Amino acid sequence: MDASFEYVFPSIRGVQAGREYYVSMCPLRLIPKIFLFDEEELVPELRAQRTLNHSRIPEMTRYLLENREDYVFSALTASIDGDVRFNAVGDEGEANRLGALHVDMQSRFIVNDGQHRRKAVEEALKQDPTLADETIAVVFFLDRNLERCQQMFADLNRYAVKPSRSLGLLYDHRNNMAKVAKHVAMESDAFKDVVEMEKTTLSARSRKLFTLSAIYSACSSLQGTENVDSVESAAAACQAYWDEIAKYIPEWHYVRQSKMSAGEVRRDFIHSHSIVLQALGTAGRKLLAEHPNGWRERLKPLKDVDWARSNGYLWEGRAMIGGRVQKGSHNVTLTTNLIKNRFGLDLSPEEARAEAAFQRGDYVD
């Protein structure tokens, strides 16, 4: 090949399944120029990847631009359809693995994995050209036809498992509401020691009553936003509210005191389910806004609420459908209505409409 008409990538050579592949660091400015993504409107059997989900791109672009000091993008995987050669820096040992990958400029680079990252990089560069000289890792595979590219896509995604929402929140240090939820889960008298921090669902034998994702949703409802300015003040307000709520739900304390098992409480009562926590949070937001000094007194009627799942008269059609706890938006609204009523709060017009329909036996979407 003529060196004047080729790309040169400093690379490390490796072997998988008897085939050579290469790992390199590419400047971001090259990503949208040389790495192609098959976005043609072809039937699935003639494409090498899934179609691009354009709704994901703004969020990924925003992440890149707003976290210039500590963003992380994992490697792209690409196939090279064209002539290549690898010039190692030496003939033996590690030196034989290090070198330069020379790729003819007529070659095509097809993204097998990372098409959304590629597009986000392209959009981010338009808004911030200073990203151009930063780099991203690229894994190159050679001489792949359509069948092999499709198989690579299937293999690369075969064991990909999205982390649970709770685990994502636990490890998220940019989201202020996640910090609030973690503080409440670990420090409040209401939730300390009974929150599952990794999983989003609880097994029947779990010793935990709540999930971190449920605490997050409840605190977000209480604050009325997922974007709080002050973690300290929001955490203090949430902790005070939930600790006061817990005074009127003795089963939460019984679990911590080993007087009841978490499984028994989740099986027999609905107050540990996320729908109730969210409803308590939504009602609490209005309560704190309208009665900033007397809100604690208005919580007292909670001690007379029958939270038993067996009380179908109270909960069927609200928090439960056919005896099973549900969390559709309609169910959350009707459960919130009941709690607002106990707090002596007025319903919004939308809530009043849903309540009237419920009382008539109608379903309102």
Instruction: Characterize the main sheet.
Output: 8 strands, mixed
Low-pLDDT segments: none
- Average of per-residue pLDDT values: 89
Query: In angstroms, what separates the terminal alpha carbons?
Result: 65 Å
User: What's the number of helices?
Assistant: 15
Tell me the β content: 15-25%
Percentage of residues assigned to helices = 40-55%
SSE string, helices as H and strands as E: EEHEHEEEEHEHHHEEHHHHHHHEEHH
Describe the protein in words.
It is elongated and about 80 Å long. It contains 15 helices and twelve strands. By secondary structure, the chain is of the alpha/beta class.
Main features:
DNA sulfur modification protein DndB, two-stranded parallel sheet, alpha/beta, 2 domains, 365 residues, elongated
Summarize it:
The chain is of the alpha/beta class and 365 residues long. It is built from 15 helices and twelve strands. It folds into two domains: 3-158, no CATH class; 165-360, no CATH class.
List the helices and strands and how they pair.
Layout (H helix, E strand, L loop, with lengths): L5 E11 L2 E9 L3 H4 E2 L20 H10 L9 E6 L2 E5 L9 E7 L3 E6 L1 H13 L7 E8 L3 H13 L6 H6 L5 H12 L7 E2 L13 E2 H12 L7 H16 L3 H7 L5 H7 L5 H17 L4 H4 L13 H4 L4 E2 L2 E2 L3 H15 L5 H12 L5
Helix pairs in contact: 2-3, 6-7, 6-8, 7-11, 11-14, 14-15
